[in-house]
């Protein structure tokens, strides 16, 4: 009798959980998830969602292109998440990617191709009280239009703004005064600052869309999207070169930071991925920089490796890293790879992770081709980029769950460990108010089980 009751109760609990957990279905082959992980589609029909961030009340803020900044209330436990009560916080269709919040949660930052703006934000009302003040201006280009924002938690009152090139290979960026292909440092308490007056953290960065600060040591990292249609000595090496790059920029609080104002090579130098396809490669190794000058390219390779800052890691060309986020201990760096658009064999289209050691460095050497471990990716990329998941923004909630936007499909997913356990277990726990609606139903099941035991006794 007892076994029958236990089996019946277990079956009832599983049925209740399956019926109660919200379920959305993608209109393309479902992405695959690595073992020990779960992923669930939690929002659809958004307008090209890019940057994500959680406010101090655990509401999710989303930059939707051609809309502005929208907000969702988040309910649920584990991977059983519901995004509800969508509300437009900032109605401005020019906002297209970057988003940040002050540590006290009262100032919201967002970016367009021209400007960085700040707003007085109320997380209880999910609203702003003004039309926004321009902090940084003068960034309009026709090429790369995203302006990634990073508000340092280690160096107070410090805002980083990443701006890409105006062309695929933009020769104007050999001049630091162009203000393009750079990361610059600003004081967010000031207004109406021209981008070119900011302090240069790094330049020679074609499009460093991903920006992150290691929470343990304050090290700044960027993920760079490299150039397309590259040639060397008149031969196309586009399919497997140049590499996408993970670059290190030192610590903002370090007065002796030797990487301040460092040049990372673009548009003259590029990271090597497939050495066999680079003509006259000589002694080049994976992760080294090579030149693409029309004459004497090999003679310039030494310049690229001696006078330019090499990447700390390289990724497969055309994978297009968009966002990077550390976990609380700085042990893992999560990367969204939006994927290729002009490669014969599509690559990318995944959320992957890079392992970091206690000294704030990746565990893999700079010559590694296996630094990225996919945890959530398209099971079949043959339909990409037209009919597949294309990850963009990443954000942690206070429960240690990782959210990822897919701009091309207008969706948001949540990623957890198996069983709905936190991906980042060291984050502060949510308040009791955020319990899943499923938990109450499970409580009824548990109560039924208790009654059954009482009856038997």
From TrEMBL:
The chain crosses the membrane at residues 437-456. Residues 1-18 form the signal peptide. InterPro entries: 6-blade_b-propeller_TolB-like, Beta-prop_PDH, Quinoprot_gluc/sorb_DH_b-prop, SMP-30/CGR1_Lactonase. Keywords: Membrane, Signal, Transmembrane, Transmembrane helix. PROSITE patterns: PROKAR_LIPOPROTEIN. SUPFAM superfamilies: Soluble quinoprotein glucose dehydrogenase (SSF50952). Residues 31-417 form the Pyrroloquinoline quinone-dependent pyranose dehydrogenase beta-propeller domain. The keyword Membrane applies. PANTHER family: LACTONASE DRP35, LIPOPROTEIN-RELATED. This is Soluble quino protein glucose dehydrogenase. It comes from Cucurbitaria berberidis CBS 394.84.
């Amino acid at each position: 009798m007892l076994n029958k009751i236990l089996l019946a109760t277990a079956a009832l609990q599983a049925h209740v959980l399956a019926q109660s957990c919200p379920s959305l279905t993608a209109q393309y082959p479902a992405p695959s998830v690595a073992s020990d992980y779960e992923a669930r589609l939690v929002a659809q029909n958004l307008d090209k969602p890019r940057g994500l961030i959680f406010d101090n009340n655990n509401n999710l803020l989303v930059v939707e292109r051609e809309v502005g900044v929208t907000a969702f209330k988040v309910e649920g436990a584990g991977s059983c998440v519901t995004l509800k009560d969508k509300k437009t916080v900032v109605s401005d269709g020019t906002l297209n990617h970057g988003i940040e919040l002050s540590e006290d949660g009262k100032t919201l930052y967002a970016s367009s191709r021209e400007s960085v703006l700040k707003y007085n934000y109320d997380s209880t009302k999910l609203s702003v009280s003004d039309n926004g003040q321009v902090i940084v201006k003068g960034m309009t280009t026709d090429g790369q239009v995203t302006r990634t924002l990073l508000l340092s938690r280690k160096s107070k009152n410090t805002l980083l703004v990443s701006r890409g090139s105006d062309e695929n290979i933009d020769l104007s960026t050999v001049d630091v005064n162009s203000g393009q292909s750079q990361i610059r440092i600003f004081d967010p308490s000031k207004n109406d600052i021209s981008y070119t007056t900011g302090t240069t953290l790094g330049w020679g960065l074609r499009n460093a869309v991903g920006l992150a600060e290691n929470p343990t040591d304050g090290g700044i990292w960027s993920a760079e999207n490299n150039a397309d249609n590259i040639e060397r000595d008149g031969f196309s090496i586009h399919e497997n070169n140049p590499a996408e790059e993970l670059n290190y920029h030192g610590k903002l609080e370090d007065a002796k930071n030797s990487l301040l104002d460092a040049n990372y090579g673009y548009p003259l130098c590029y990271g090597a991925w497939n050495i066999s396809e680079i003509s006259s490669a000589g002694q080049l190794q994976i992760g080294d920089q090579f030149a693409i000058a029309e004459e004497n390219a090999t003679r310039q390779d030494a310049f690229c490796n001696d006078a330019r800052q090499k990447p700390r890691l390289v990724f497969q060309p055309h994978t297009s890293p968009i966002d990077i986020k550390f976990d609380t201990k700085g042990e893992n760096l999560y990367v969204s790879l939006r994927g290729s658009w002009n490669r014969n064999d599509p690559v990318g289209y995944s959320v992957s992770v890079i392992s970091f050691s206690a000294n704030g460095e990746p565990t893999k050497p700079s010559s590694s081709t296996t630094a990225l471990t996919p945890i959530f990716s398209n099971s079949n990329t043959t339909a990409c980029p037209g009919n597949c998941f294309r990850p963009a923004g990443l954000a942690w909630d206070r429960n240690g769950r990782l959210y990822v936007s897919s701009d091309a499909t207008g969706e948001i997913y949540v990623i957890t460990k198996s069983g709905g356990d936190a991906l980042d277990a060291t984050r502060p726990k949510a308040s009791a108010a955020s319990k899943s609606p499923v938990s109450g139903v499970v409580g009824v099941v548990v109560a039924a089980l208790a009654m059954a035991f009482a009856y038997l006794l």
